[in-house]
Design brief:
globular, 39 strands, about 20% helix, hydrolase, alpha-1,4-glucosidase activity, five-stranded antiparallel beta sheet, about 850 residues, alpha+beta, glycosidase, six-stranded antiparallel beta sheet, Immunoglobulin-like, single chain
């Protein structure tokens, strides 16, 4: 059997600092409190005086520097006090009367439950029609959140699973008083950070529950290439193995490890063809039924386990048996990996129970698949698995598969919120079935909107079920939908330089790619009222369209909250918004609201390859939003990776040092009008040239004169943007330093975003509206009249025209307070859902900006 050294070695330091421990007790009641920080405390109780110092699935690194705290104790009471909380305890078994923690004005009384009312995530969305109940995270509107860890699985010192002593209590109080990012930082310190993902996972994935043949699958991959739609990852669902021809005496074909030779007569050749196309390959695995006698590898696994094969009894799946798990990985899975399988889609759906209490098979599968995947570092660069969420701590095993959602607008509407709140439990890499999995209706609009969400999601994986009517190939949709889906799939690959940098930020800075609005605005009540809106990186606000287009405006609509500042829409840079208020955003089918605040830099791959894969780009376009100073440090993996060191060494530390990455600082000086790029350090190698372009989003001032000493510069003004193109520029590699080198582009001092042309934008909206021609005249008169703005806003509100049209017009009218005749401060929004017939005025709601 192959060595299992990878599988039982992982970083951990679970024993707490003894200087941070307060413990005591007698008789049949013993307690231990561990002050991890001044805001994070562990509480434990046992009847026998024993406490747990082994790593749990959640708590892996309990050793912190001892914080400042004070203890007040009597014979029957204990108080622990820091600057942030006051714990009171009666020295008896924990109860709501005997253990409490006051944090600010909020008081927590022990109840044995986890609490975090801002939500976390859920194990799966299987069958979800829309919203599902979420497990709590560690963020809350109250001043505290609670994570009960009493029933989680443990790991022994040798890396194998272990169980807890029954009856003991083990939990954590997060006393962060709404400082959400501080709470998450300490959550990661305690539980372990999100790992760095390889670049290729950030591109487009293809999967479908369909009985492909090898030729059909390869032709599909080639069709994507002919379409100019790049992919990085190909998932082959369960029909890769024998399903329908399994003899009934062995049970169903749900679990299987023998290739279906009717569909895949040459598995090695098939997998090699995918590898030749620069695709990473995973197979689906439902492991619950074990290894049955008809399987090709049954004799080999039986031999490894000394299993009697004479009666063809199955080798049962048993995640609590170390010998079975070793055979599962080092005989069964390794044989398939040697054929060319690079990683696995673990599709565990059979519950949380096993032979041992608190040992969840999903946890065992996720943990050991991730660690074992290090042996495939040559193919996948970094450890990875693809599976469902198992609970607090599951963020250490990306990537998550969220399950089989129904193809409905309700399913789409919940996914942005579901993805964002997962960050509240540190889970940053969800992969959804983009387009939905089953049920629902065929809808070009719904599929396009889902793909747009996927483009601005952690992972974009197209997926659907076996129905012949339900598949996600863009060319199977109508022309407009086909074109838009293709555009966004290409854009996803163009975003990889940005996404990879966010991947590093997520791991080393405790900043998940997607964050709820309240993470950055914890004291703004409005930030808690827009659950489908989120930050995508530090500067982009995404508000996906999750409902059908209006039949009048031909646009979808979403209510968004804009924090204070000024923003421009990356997809419609003619619109610039003043923040500090709610706005109703309207976009046609080709656009999704992605707002960038002043002082934003986003690097894009200028020309992603039409072939598959995700190579580092040789030409980069920087999206620059002027108006404030900006900085972005582009982070890339080294061009020549040391796979042994960075793909899983034998020392157990599977995370590369931050110094291993190539970095290019990019800075914009607003006052001077100078953009500085570089120097790149630690990674250029022999290829020290790269083409750069700069796209000023929302700025078309024709006085801009780009100057780069020594280089020929071209400039183009189109679509509300100014693009400045450079030729090949030396990358100025500095292997061990960050000062000196680089180059500067002078664009012009104190550049500002364009002022919205209200009449032009309003005319566009009204011109496209599908309504009576004569009915448009009084609407247009509102925008051409010389009356006061407030009077004209009231006239628009009173007109007997479609409510969605009023909102769309109000958006462009009130967007930019600098615009001549702007309605900012007078905007009136109509609740479209509440409107019925002519009773429009009854549904008016006003948001007045002071």
């Amino acid at each position: 059997m192959a060595s299992s050294r990878y599988r039982y070695t992982f970083p951990r330091n679970p024993k707490a600092n003894p200087k941070a421990v307060v413990t005591g007790g007698k008789g049949s009641s013993y307690y231990r409190f561990t002050l991890l920080t001044e805001r994070l405390i562990r509480y434990e109780w046992s009847e026998d005086g024993g406490f747990e110092d082994r790593a749990s699935t959640f708590a892996v690194f309990r050793y912190f520097d001892a914080p400042q705290y004070r203890v007040v104790e009597t014979n029957d009471s204990l108080e622990i006090i820091t600057d942030y909380f006051h714990l009171t305890y009666d020295k008896k078994k924990f109860s709501s009367e005997g253990l409490s923690v006051r944090v600010g004005s909020d008081l927590w009384n022990y109840d044995g439950k986890s609490y975090g009312d801002l939500g976390g995530t859920a194990r799966t969305l299987d069958g979800a029609y829309g919203r599902v109940d979420l497990e709590p995270g560690v963020l809350s509107r109250k001043a505290y959140a609670i994570l009960d860890d009493s029933k989680s699985m443990l790991f022994d010192d040798d890396g194998w699973i272990a169980i807890r002593e029954p009856g003991r209590i083990d939990g954590y109080v997060f006393a962060y008083s709404g400082e959400h990012k501080a709470a998450i930082r300490d959550f990661y310190r305690l539980s372990g950070r999100q790992p760095v993902l390889p670049r290729w996972v950030l591109g487009n994935w293809w999967s479908r529950y369909h009985a492909y043949s090898a030729d059909e699958y390869i032709e599909l991959m080639d069709h994507f290439k002919r379409e100019g739609i790049p992919l990085t990852t190909s998932i082959v669902d369960m029909d890769w193995h024998r399903v329908d021809d399994v003899p009934p005496k062995y049970g169903s074909g749900w679990t299987g490890y023998s290739w279906n030779r009717k569909l895949f007569p040459d598995p090695e050749g098939f997998l090699q063809e995918l590898r030749n196309r620069n695709l990473k390959v995973a197979l689906n695995d439902h492991p619950a039924d074990g290894i049955r006698a008809y399987e090709d590898l049954y004799p080999a696994v039986a031999k490894a386990l000394n299993h009697d094969t004479s009666r063809e009894e199955p080798i049962k799946f048993d995640c609590t048996d170390r010998k079975f798990m070793d055979a599962y990985f080092d005989v069964l899975k390794l044989s398939l990996e040697k054929q060319g399988v690079m990683f696995w889609w673990i599709d565990w759906q059979q519950g949380t129970g096993s032979k041992l209490p608190s040992v969840d098979p999903l946890w065992v599968l996720n943990h050991y698949h991730y660690l074992t995947s290090k042996r495939n570092a040559k193919d996948i660069q970094r450890p990875i698995t693809f599976s469902r969420y198992a609970g607090a701590g599951a963020h250490r095993y990306p990537i998550g598969f969220s399950g089989d959602t129904q193809t409905t607008w309700e399913g789409l509407e919940f996914q942005p919120e579901f993805t964002a709140t997962a960050s509240n439990i540190g889970y940053g890499w969800w992969s959804h079935d983009i387009g939905g999995h089953w049920g629902g209706v065929r809808s070009n609009q719904l599929t396009v909107r889902w793909v747009q969400l996927g483009c601005f999601s952690p992972i974009l994986r197209l997926h659907s079920n076996k129905s012949p009517w339900n598949s996600r190939e863009p060319w199977n949709y109508e022309d407009e939908a086909h074109r838009i889906m293709k555009d966004f799939l290409i854009l996803r690959h163009r975003l990889i330089p940005f996404l990879y940098t966010m991947n590093i930020r997520a791991s080393y800075e405790s900043e998940p790619l997607i964050q709820p609005m309240y993470w950055n605005h914890p004291k703004d009540e409005e930030a808690y009222t827009v659950p489908t809106q989120y930050y995508f990186g530090p500067d982009l606000l995404v508000a996906p369209i999750t409902s059908p287009n209006s039949t009048v405006t031909l646009m979808g609509r979403v209510r968004a909250w804009l924090p204070p500042g000024r923003y421009v829409d990356l997809f419609y840079p003619h619109l610039v918004y003043d923040g500090g208020r709610y706005m109703h955003l309207h976009r046609d089918l080709s656009q999704i609201p992605v707002l960038a605040r002043e002082g934003t830099i986003v690097p894009l791959d200028t020309t992603p390859r039409t072939g598959h894969g995700a190579a580092r780009p040789t030409e980069i376009t920087l999206l620059l939003v002027v108006g404030r100073d900006a900085h972005f440090e582009l982070v890339e993996e080294p061009e020549q990776q040391d796979h042994h060191r960075h793909g899983g060494g034998d020392d157990g530390d599977d995370q590369p040092p931050l110094s291993a990455f190539a970095r290019t600082p990019i800075s914009w000086s607003q006052a001077d009008g100078v953009l500085t790029i570089g120097p790149e350090w630690n990674g250029a190698g022999a290829r020290r040239w790269r083409q750069w372009n700069v796209k000023l989003v929302g700025h078309t001032n024709t006085d801009v004169q780009a100057q780069v000493p020594g280089f020929r510069v071209t400039r183009d003004v189109e679509g509300g943007c100014t693009t400045v193109a450079l030729g090949n520029v030396h990358r100025w590699q500095q292997p061990h330093q960050r000062d000196g080198g680089g180059f500067e582009i002078s664009l012009g001092r104190d550049l500002q975003l364009d002022v919205v042309d209200v009449r032009a934008r309003a005319f566009e909206v009204l011109h496209r509206a599908e309504m009576g021609y004569e009915a448009k005249d009084p609407v247009w008169d509102v925008f051409t009249s010389g009356d006061a703005v407030q009077t004209r806003v009231q006239r628009l509100a009173a007109l007997d025209v479609d409510a969605a049209l009023k909102n769309a017009l109000m958006e462009v009218w009130a967007a930019d307070g600098r615009a001549e005749g702007s309605a900012a401060g007078y905007e009136t929004w109509v609740d479209v859902k509440a409107c019925a017939g002519d009773a429009v005025e009854e549904a008016l709601k006003e948001y007045v900006i002071v």
